[in-house]
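Researcher: We're reviewing a set of sequences before deciding which ones to prioritize for further study. For each one, I'd like a predicted 3D structure that I can look through quickly. This is Bile acid:sodium symporter. If possible, include the structure in token form so it fits the rest of the review sheet.
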Amino acid sequence: MARPKYLPDNFTLSLVATVVVASLFPAHGIGATVFGHLTTVAIMLLFFLHGAKLPREALVAAITHWRLHLLILGSTFVMFPLLALGLRPVLSPLVTPALYTGVLFTCMLPSTVQSSIALTSIAKGNVPAAVCAASASSVLGIFLTPLLAGVILSTRGSGGASPLHMIGGIVMQLLVPFIAGQIARHWIGAWVTRKKAMLKLVDNSSIILTVYSAFSAAVIEGLWHEIPPAAIGGLVLVNLILLAIALGVTTLVSRRLGFSQADRITIMFCGSKKSLAAGIPMAKVLFAGAVGGAGTVVLPLMLFHQIQLMVCSVLAQRFGARDIALDDGGALAPTPTPPPGR
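Model: Here's the predicted structure for Bile acid:sodium symporter, in token form for your review sheet.
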């Protein structure tokens, strides 16, 4: 029996179940320490495998279409943070201060990789450009996200950590394993590429472990006593507003700059996403010293993740159903594939 379209995917249901388990049975004491170490190992393994899988050519090729990539990076790391800061007087009353810190953090994250590429493919956009843009965003985010967090969130619950300290933590847990994977790609790259199921398992497991650890710490600190039900509804509205503005701005600006239809689709999908896979490990490092840990911070990201998939999947299907006449050398996508969970 086919799954009804209105139901979330298995990974999203797993995240919801993890939050419930962490709320009822939070890890504490030695258990919390063990889960913390397991999470760190899983995250490092994840980025090692991603480094081994990602072709260097995909990163180098980003330079050849610099206008498109510059616009996507500008949307990801400039427009989103400015939106969250500029709309703060209007949007922050809808949620708690701690949740809005999570909104700000979400707006500093890199774009997704898998879902951006898959949705661009479904919408018949420029898939090679999406691969390059999403990859470049993911790598640059290792440096730019902690830098932005250090500047913007230095007095908003980030534990007082300096930008350099944040970057150092991210480099050791994410970038070093990624570079090690790139070096090892010569020997294990083909094997990792064939083992997609294994990479997905490590990917999902690392996120679930991190969510459980983060929410356990937050629950012990009184997370659900501090967040009224109305704030959850307000958070959904905040995320919808930010996503709608991002989709509208990227579409309008790319059209005004004369990009082809295929490139405009790529810019819209890659420039409006925020990565759950990168964001949760980063939150674990950046907010380790904050009151309540990363639990409250990742809640806005988890909601934004699901909202962006639902909204953009509908848009991608509508674009893909059209008979798009590509101009200016826009590249047609290969056979569409369904978007993954991240």
